[in-house]
Design goal:
Layout: H1 2-21, E1 31-36, E2 48-58, E3 61-70, E4 86-96, H2 98-102, E5 115-135, H3 138-143, E6 148-167, E7 169-171, E8 174-192, E9 203-204, H4 210-214, E10 222-236
Antiparallel strand pairs: 1-2, 1-10, 2-3, 3-4, 4-5, 5-6, 5-9, 6-8, 7-8, 8-10
Length: about 240
């Protein structure tokens, strides 16, 4: 975590130093400030108010830093709170605009100029509470009796690396940026105040949200695949 936070601030500092030391063309705007519209309704991890800043280093290369803080939660189903509901996200990525690199005349604008690929490092952490139902034994499960409520807390850390694919659509100074990420991640999950214990013969209640709940459990810690997509809206200056 400390390394990723340090990477985020180093990247942000680098953007500032580059801006101070490099002469900026009057005609070419090299900064883009963005808001991540998809992050506001992210139900797969947690919704965040999330902003990004992209700095063009070359016509074909840029660095972007992004940060968000949890806005609200879809997951507050528990009456008993074991942890404080909170979360944040840090992202740093380097981008390569292939068609800008290949074209010979940089003064000419083409639709393909907005296509990019790159590498992204990310870190996110959030705490939340969840409600779970189970039965004390198989007989209770078979007869649907003695159902027990289990309110517990979850602390989750996720970090990883992605390949980035995206396209910037300019509308004057306004930028629309659909994106796709494919990569790998590692989860560290801890549960608090949980009473369900499979070794004691407890049986889970049937739940159509079982896959989502599995990602709340400590046994879901470890390596995995990652895919994400969404839309940023930005302003070029």
């Amino acid at each position: 975590m400390k390394k990723l936070i340090l990477l985020f601030f180093i990247s942000l500092t680098s953007l500032n130093l580059i801006a101070q030391t490099e002469q900026t063309s009057i005609l070419e705007k090299k900064w883009i400030a963005k808001i991540n519209a998809t992050a506001l309704i992210d139900g797969f991890s947690f919704p965040t108010i999330q902003f990004a800043v992209e700095r063009k280093i070359k016509p074909y290369f840029s660095i972007q830093t992004e940060a968000g803080i949890q806005a609200y939660s879809f997951r507050n189903n528990a009456d008993t709170l074991s942890v404080d509901n909170s979360g944040f996200r840090l992202i740093t990525e380097g981008r390569f605009y292939l068609f800008n690199y290949l074209k010979k005349d940089n003064t000419k604008k083409r639709k393909s100029d907005g296509l990019y690929t790159g590498i992204q490092a990310f870190y996110r952490k959030n705490n939340y509470n969840e409600r779970f139902y189970y039965f004390p034994d198989q007989n209770s499960y078979d007869n649907n009796t003695n159902k027990i409520i289990d309110d517990y807390g979850i602390k989750k850390e996720v970090y990883g690396i992605n390949l980035c694919f995206g396209y910037q659509i300019p509308i004057n100074n306004l930028i629309l940026e659909p994106y796709l990420y494919i990569g790998a991640l590692k989860r560290n999950i801890k549960n608090f105040d949980r009473t369900y214990n499979e070794s004691l013969g407890h049986v889970e209640d049937d739940d159509i949200h079982g896959f989502i709940r599995f990602n709340d459990e400590e046994k879901a810690s470890g390596k995995g695949e990652n895919i994400a997509f969404g839309l940023r809206i930005g302003y070029k200056f």
